[in-house]
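quick one, 113 residues, struct below
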Amino acid sequence: MRPHRSQAGQGIIEALLSLPLLFLAGSILTLLLYRALVFHLTNYHLHEALICTQDASIQFCQKELEGRLSGILITQQRVSIRFQKNQDLTKGTVSIELRPPLKLEKSIRRKLL
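---
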């Protein structure tokens, strides 16, 4: 069955109108997935860096963490890493300037000697 003359270009017009909405939805989904990936990988690498501080210096573990985080981030966002160590606890904080900013804090008890 052939379409009437009044409906001849309707499919193309509908596709052109819906394409920007599909692109927008795909972009938002991609950004949310990227943010979730950055969050989970940063959380994992921060935990590994805190374990590292039990056997190595804080400066070494911080440099390792910086290197791993630079491999995760697509663009060059500012990353702030801070470690605090006292007698029984090591605390690490990572702040990444995404929109909205991402801040993770984690602590680990030092091993008993």
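The longest helix spans residues 10-52.
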